[in-house]
Amino acid sequence: TVEAPETIEGWYVQHDLFTFQWSQWRTFAPAKRHQLVEEAAAWLKVQTQTEAGDSAAFNVVGHKGDLLLTHFRPSLEALNQVKVSLRQTEFFSYLEPVYGYLSVIELGMYEVIGVVKRQLSAQGLEEGSDAYNAAYQEALQQQKEALQDRLYPEIPAGRYQCFYPMNKRRGETHNWYTLSMDERRSLMRGHGMTGRKYAGRVKQIISGSVGFDDWEWGVSLFADDPLVFKKLVYEMRFDTASSLYGEFGEFFVGIRFEPEQFGDVLSG
Ligand code: 76R
């Protein structure tokens, strides 16, 4: 058994994809359409103004769906509340859920823990001792406080969202979960260096989903230029962390819209 990395967690995350029942929509008179648009917009507005967390809506490109909703919330209960409140609207009668993904914002502590451990040994604390464990927990807690903004963010700005789930490979030859901590740390460092080249052009939210959903992580990228998604993801395919160990699910791309734009989204 090799050592599992420490992670710290923030908001819970739900991505929901719906198709819209266009054939019914086309039969509605303008007044009925207006009423549904108003209802949907009001619902979305309430979600975006939630006290703890955030929500955003995206107009999905291509055949995979029509509407992508992304929600950050403090608990599973709060995510469920979002789900039920949407299902109570009349607007929901014209939505078909086609995909969803549950995860929790996760920060890997590969680098941080390396530093903490060196500090604790330098202080002469013996690994496994009560004093060591207490100091270790305190250091983690401090990190968590220092990283509040990244654990509890608003949904990043950016006109476009690209979402996909991924795993780290567990194959016969290449198995992420049998690599040593140092090997994984070094691969994650290379990964982070590639990522940092895109600073300012893309915001990424990495959310862990082991035990929650069918893949191990959700990757949510936000950018004002959709080509940045392609360039970043492509460049990362050449990083060992992705080339030997990355496995990817379906990709979804959407264009952000505000509650008051619901009417435009539905009229094209
Ligand atoms: O959190 C940090 O910024 C520190 C460095 C870092 C970590 C620990 C980092 C940086 N990532 C980390 C963890 Mn990432 N990331 C992905 C994908 O398509 C692919 O090939 C992979 C999908 C992208 C596009 C991306 C972008 N990252 C992770 C993890 C957890 C792994 C674990 O713990 O074992 C996954 C699954 C993952 C996947 N990453 C960055 C980026 C970008 C753009 C950065 C730089 C962020 C910045 O410094 O601004």
From TrEMBL:
InterPro entries: ChdC/CLD, Dimeric_a/b-barrel. It holds the Pfam family Chlor_dismutase. GO terms for molecular function: heme binding; metal ion binding; oxidoreductase activity. SUPFAM superfamilies: Dimeric alpha+beta barrel (SSF54909). Keywords: Heme, Iron, Metal-binding. Signal peptide: none annotated. This is Coproheme III oxidative decarboxylase. It comes from Entotheonella factor.
